[in-house]
């Protein structure tokens, strides 16, 4: 288990804040105002903190667990350490908790864990499990251009990558790993070899196609730039963020960028209008050029670090296709997540999913299902899912936890817990892993869905961070 411990401590991913989970509260406890509240949150760059703790590197081989001779925390001791925090008024009257032994999955401490509560973005943990269960995490997405129905037609075929750059492909990054300029270079060379001149470019975005937006997403959140349409082809430069809405048909923007690049390379290109998701490229079409994305593991890590709603929905749809299912039905993706959990033996009682990202109101999950799933990773039962859990934000270091665990009450554990955050109006949650003072890997899930308006999100966040700090510092055997 030492290997797992170090993997869970290792820092990976991207230092930007969670699109939903930096939503500010209305007031602090003493009534001081904070940043202006927003419906769901806004993307914020990570602060340049000095003297960040250095996470342990991922090991090349496992060694005996430091906790092998020490019993796991006792329920009574955990109740003493955590009970008062669970009752903190800032969390409100509806709190569900489950703390597990990460090695065995045994529940060590719980408070109403089986009650159905709104999970917000912690729901992405469940979706990540579905993604890792059905996709090859080391595989990549291919965006290509092939010949069309006539010699003067070419077809841009979507392959799932929504993090395309406009410039040359950059193999050192996730965003822009595949670039439109590189694709244009390859296509232009192929057209030159064929003696082609001007061309018409059309789009085939039929792969893993489904509704542009889950029907239960709020239109105002989309308009405010808190999320964007779920597509299989997009540019990083078009993505929503910072109050900027994304284009409703991102494939058109990719086609326009490619057409401009091809024209600059001597092949005047006209873009054919896109209707719906377009039509499939001709059977047996010849490939003229292609670029590959970063791996699925890296894209999933990006989605978890950024709490990216559209990318999470994208990956679940691709997982459905890999499993032989169609993502076309409006509730197909959330039903697929529930089925994947059930097939793995995870109890699904209390799950009511309307999307796979946690943005829709009216969804419920339980602390039990969150902890059950996370324990599959830490107990060594699912190495692929462990890779996803290892990419969760790290306390005080990156993602949606980059600006947390900085105060005097919590900074002692910065760099140790990693967790998926969840924040919507009146909802605050945290689900992840930590390592206690005795070296035990622990799993935790805390869902609070009646956070008082008087304390706001920041009050609930502070209480959750104190909970995880107490759990991490506890030598409660």
UniProtKB/TrEMBL annotation:
The keyword Hydrolase applies. One of its GO terms (molecular function) is carboxypeptidase activity. SUPFAM superfamilies: beta-lactamase/transpeptidase-like. Residues 33-74 are annotated as: Disordered. It comes from the Bacteria. Keywords: Carboxypeptidase, Hydrolase, Protease, Signal. Residues 33-68 have a biased composition (Low complexity). Residues 1-17 form the signal peptide. Belongs to the peptidase S13 family. This is D-alanyl-D-alanine carboxypeptidase.
């Amino acid at each position: 288990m030492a290997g797992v411990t170090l993997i869970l401590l290792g820092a990976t991913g991207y230092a930007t804040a969670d699109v939903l989970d930096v939503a500010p509260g209305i007031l602090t406890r003493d009534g001081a105002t904070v940043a202006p509240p927003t419906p769901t949150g806004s993307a914020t760059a990570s602060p340049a903190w000095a003297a960040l703790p250095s996470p342990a590197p991922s090991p090349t081989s496992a060694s005996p667990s430091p906790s092998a001779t020490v019993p796991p925390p006792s329920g009574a001791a955990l109740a003493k350490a955590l009970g008062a925090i669970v009752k903190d008024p800032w969390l409100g009257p509806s709190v569900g908790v489950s703390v597990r032994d990460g090695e065995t999955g045994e529940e060590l401490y719980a408070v109403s864990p089986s009650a159905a509560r709104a999970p917000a973005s912690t729901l992405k943990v469940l979706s990540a499990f579905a993604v890792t269960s059905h996709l090859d995490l080391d595989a990549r997405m291919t965006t290509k251009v092939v010949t069309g129905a006539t010699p003067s037609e070419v077809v841009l075929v979507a392959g799932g990558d929504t993090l395309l750059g406009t410039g040359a492909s950059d193999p050192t990054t996730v965003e822009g790993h595949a670039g439109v300029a590189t694709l244009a270079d390859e296509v232009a060379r192929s057209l030159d070899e064929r003696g082609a001149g001007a061309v018409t470019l059309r789009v085939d975005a039929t792969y893993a196609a489904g509704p542009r937006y889950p029907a239960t997403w709020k239109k105002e959140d989309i308009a405010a730039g808190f999320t964007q349409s779920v597509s299989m082809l997009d540019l990083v430069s078009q993505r929503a963020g910072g109050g900027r809405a994304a284009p409703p048909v991102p494939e058109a923007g990719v086609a326009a960028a490619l057409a401009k690049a091809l024209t600059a390379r001597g092949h005047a290109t006209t873009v054919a209008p896109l209707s719906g998701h377009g039509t499939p490229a001709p059977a047996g079409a010849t490939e003229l050029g292609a670029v590959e994305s970063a791996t699925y593991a890296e894209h999933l890590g990006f989605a978890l670090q950024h709490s990216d709603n559209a990318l999470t929905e994208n990956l679940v749809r691709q997982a459905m296709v890999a499993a032989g299912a169609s993502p076309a039905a409006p509730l197909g993706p959330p039903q697929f997540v529930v089925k994947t959990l059930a097939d793995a033996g995870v109890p699904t009682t209390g799950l009511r999913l309307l999307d796979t990202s946690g943005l829709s109101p009216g969804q419920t999950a339980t602390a039990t299902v969150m902890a059950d799933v996370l324990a599959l990773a830490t107990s060594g039962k699912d190495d692929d899912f462990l890779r996803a859990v290892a990419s969760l934000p790290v306390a005080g270091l990156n993602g949606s936890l980059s600006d947390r665990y900085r105060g005097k009450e919590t900074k002692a554990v910065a760099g140790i817990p990693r967790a998926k955050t969840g924040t919507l109006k009146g909802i605050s949650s945290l689900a992840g892993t930590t390592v206690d003072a005795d070296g035990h890997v622990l799993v935790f899930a805390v869902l609070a869905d009646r956070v008082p308006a008087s304390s706001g999100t920041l009050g609930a966040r502070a209480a959750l961070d104190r909970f995880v700090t107490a759990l991490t510092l506890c030598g409660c055997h």
